[in-house]
Specification:
Blueprint lengths: L7 H5 L9 H8 L5 E2 L11 H10 L11 H11 L6 E4 L2 H12 L5 E6 L3 H9 L3 E6 L7 H7 L4 E7 L11 H10 L5 E5 L3 H4 L8 H4 L4 E6 L12 E4 L2 H10 L7 H12 L1 H24 L11 E5 L3 H13 L2 E2 L1 E2 L8 E5 L3 H16 L1
Parallel strand pairs: 1-10, 3-4, 3-5, 5-6, 6-7
Antiparallel strand pairs: 2-8, 7-8, 9-12, 11-12
């Protein structure tokens, strides 16, 4: 029996490969102590209030979700905006995919960086979209070069600030200059997945403070709030943009439990501050240690650091050496930065162990 064939662009795709799990490495290497510093997850675990709200919502599981209405109301109150300016989904990737469905058609062009969030490249390829990439400058989005690359068919610009996987961010002044040069008919997606960490930098351009009609902000509860496993994210933008997204997004998303987790997380200021303090402390120690070994670490305002190794072979070497000591880091070949390794900031104990292992590796 010959099965139906998918379109050629789907045939070319390879399924996304998530980071390796702790259990997988324990079995493979036969070691007990394994820490995962590969996926930018919160080392403190989930927000306690998120867990409480999930537990309280379990009795409602027989009822269909309300398509994000509850969390949208909460976010509209938090940001002092209309509910018509807010959309919620199963992670910010779900909203990003809906934006593409709502706004792009054959022949349209997307601009972004070469060396950013892998999920965006996958979404573009899955929808057979024309994505043109501009090289990073000092491992940061080069907004000037992106502006100069705009063509008559450019419809959509995807910015990630801070950038994943480099942790770098462009400043308020750079963003102001970029927006001033931008034609009115181009939609800008500002992916701020690591906003809670980055806002501690006084030059960070919080896109919600600008309220530009052509900018859609994407944020997530996966990082600072520690609930990546339940998939909840949101977008904030002009009501016309939100309305068009609502037309094409998946029915009933996000789930009842996802909404409950998000509602609890938004109440958990104590946990959020603890996460930020832990990250700041660990990132400072790790950056100093890496620089003492001669690495030039791009300044990160996220919850991870990017370690440039010079060549893909050296990057694989470092990740393999760390793995032999039970530390899972992420080589960046899939992110189109094959010379680098991304390391998530762990908790205090994990950072101490990582530094100890780095010293052993470097002394070799």
């Amino acid at each position: 029996m010959k099965l139906p064939a998918p379109p050629e662009h789907i045939e070319r795709l390879k399924p996304y490969q998530p980071g390796r799990s702790i259990e997988e490495i324990q079995q493979e290497l036969g070691i007990e102590k394994v820490i995962k510093l590969a996926s930018n997850e919160n080392p403190l675990g989930p927000s306690p209030l998120a867990l409480k709200f999930i537990e309280d919502s379990l009795k409602s599981l027989s009822v269909y979700p309300n398509s994000g209405l509850t969390i949208r109301r909460k976010l509209s109150d938090k940001h002092n905006i209309s509910i018509n300016n807010v959309v919620a989904g199963s992670g910010s990737e779900s909203i990003l995919a809906a934006v593409m469905r709502a706004y792009l058609q054959p022949g349209d062009e997307i601009l972004t960086a070469e060396g950013t969030f892998i999920g965006f490249y996958v979404l573009c390829a899955a929808q057979n979209l024309n994505c043109r990439t501009i090289p990073l400058k000092d491992y940061t989005f080069d907004l000037e070069a992106i502006s100069e690359a705009i063509s008559p068919v450019t419809r959509f610009i995807y910015l990630v600030n801070p950038n994943n996987p480099t942790g770098t961010a462009f400043s308020k002044s750079e963003f102001d200059q970029f927006i001033d040069r931008l034609p009115d008919n181009i939609l800008v997606i500002m992916d701020e997945a690591y906003f809670e960490y980055a806002r501690e930098w006084d030059q960070y351009p919080d896109s919600l403070e600008y309220r530009h009609d052509q900018v859609l902000t994407l944020r997530t509860f996966s990082k600072a709030y520690g609930i990546a496993g339940i998939r909840i994210g949101y977008g904030i933008g002009h009501e016309d943009i939100i309305n068009n997204i609502m037309k094409v997004k998946l029915l009933f998303e996000p789930t009842t439990l996802s909404q409950a987790a998000g509602l609890g997380a938004l109440e958990d200021d104590e946990f959020l501050q603890l996460a930020l303090d832990t990250n700041r402390r660990g990132k400072e120690l790790l950056t100093i240690e890496l620089e003492n070994h001669g690495f030039k670490i791009p300044p990160s305002v996220a919850n991870f650091v990017f370690v440039p190794m010079g060549t893909p072979e050296r990057a694989i070497w470092l990740s393999d050496e760390l793995l032999q000591h039970g530390i899972i880091a992420r080589p960046m070949l899939p992110f189109r930065l094959p010379e680098g390794v991304r390391i998530t900031i762990g908790n205090d104990e994990e950072v101490s162990y990582l530094i100890e292992v780095l010293r052993k590796i470097m002394n070799k």
